[in-house]
Amino acid sequence: MQIYGVAKKARRADEETREETLVTAILAWSIERSYDLLRAILERAEAATLELVGNRVRIPDSPPEEVRVEEQLLFEGRRFALDLVAEWREFLLVVENKIAPGELYREQLDNYHSGLRNRGVDYVLIALTPDSDEYFVEVWNALKSGREHTLFLRWSDVWRVTEGLIERSARETDALVAKELMEAIALAPGLKPFSGFDAISIDALRNLVLADRKLGEFLNALESILAGSRGEGLTLHAHHREKTLYQLPSWLWDEYHDEDLMVPEGCSYREIYFGPWFRLEKGLYTVFLEATGQGSRVISEALKKKPEVSSRFTESFLQRFPAFTLEIGEGEESVFKVYADLPLTNSLITAVRPGAQPPLVQQTAEIIKAIRHDFVEPILQISRST
């Protein structure tokens, strides 16, 4: 496969699958040119699967004769498309690539196993996804057949494999190919692993507010000289300041809405949102729920009728997430809030679990789900029933 062919395949793909097609094609291009990279990826997949489910698979200890993408697989009158195939004389390596979590399904793997067995050659099927260990184990246990031919690999592990190859490779070609693959992984949201915060980055975050103030002081002082009443006759155009191109944020956050929330009539799901929030000015990392407008009124009224919902949730939450403190109630501007706070100095911020998402990422997702399912849903049920 030539690199221009990779670009052509991506351009021809549907918009929804373009990133997946591009990443798959660059992976194929990379392992075709670097056997050391392929070997390192396979070793990581073997180790990960052995650790998770005790499955060991034999893979030829030599470069493949050919690497292809979008291979057609016919079985019982049905046609399937294999994302990537590496072929040896009597062996096939098949990669099923997913770039979004939760899209790896047992039924799809069952179909592939049936079709590949029908070819009469030995094979291994690697499920390459951003999913968690737990999700893969669930899919693997649900397989009707083919477990002994199935390996699991996370994209975050591929990233770390390429990093290691760049550091230790004696061949310039291997390092260049690995860098190209890393660039491709970084293009797709969520595939490049979050490496965690270190002490330097935490200090930088805590100093953002101070840096922002100092920048403002500097620019204001310069303005007084250049554009003040005794200045050089210059006029300041403050559009850059309005766009905050020089200002650093004191707050950083994302908001998530849940379209499936069963809100009462007159209330919109958009009035209830969740997310992670770095409250740098306060030195806190916060996982939050906020509700505005009718959403805030609905939650407040329901809690007046059933205050025990809040106390039960608080008790279970603090047992499950002991590092966090919890604040529930009405805030400024009639916003109802649930804030789970963690000091930026807490060790959970900097903790890293090799080969997986850092604990802070995992706990943030679990807290948002807990607030959604164990607090918001019971509250909305109370509101709908009255």
Number of domains: 3
CATH topology of the largest domain: Trna Endonuclease, Chain: A, domain 1
Q: Give the overall pLDDT as a whole number.
A: 83
Structural class determined from secondary elements: alpha+beta
Instruction: Give the neighbour order of strands across the main sheet.
Output: 1-2-3-4-5
Instruction: Report the radius of gyration as a whole number of Å.
Output: 26 Å
Largest sheet: 5 strands, mixed
CATH architectural designation of the largest domain: 3-Layer(aba) Sandwich
**Total count of helical runs of at least 4 residues:** 14
Could you give the order of the helices and strands?
A: HHHEEEHEHEHHHHHEEEHHEEHH
- Low-confidence stretches are 238-246
Instruction: State the end-to-end distance.
Output: 64 Å
Shape: globular
Fraction of residues in helices? 40-55%
Q: List how many beta strands DSSP finds.
A: 10
Give the helix/strand layout.
Blueprint: H1 3-12, H2 18-33, H3 35-53, E1 66-75, E2 78-88, E3 91-97, H4 106-119, E4 122-129, H5 133-142, E5 150-154, H6 155-168, H7 172-187, H8 199-206, H9 208-226, H10 239-242, E6 251-253, E7 272-279, E8 284-291, H11 293-305, H12 308-320, E9 325-330, E10 336-343, H13 347-350, H14 359-384
Parallel strand pairs: 3-4, 4-5
Antiparallel strand pairs: 1-2, 2-3, 6-7, 7-8, 8-10, 9-10
Helix pairs in contact: 1-2, 2-3, 2-7, 3-6, 6-7, 11-14, 12-14
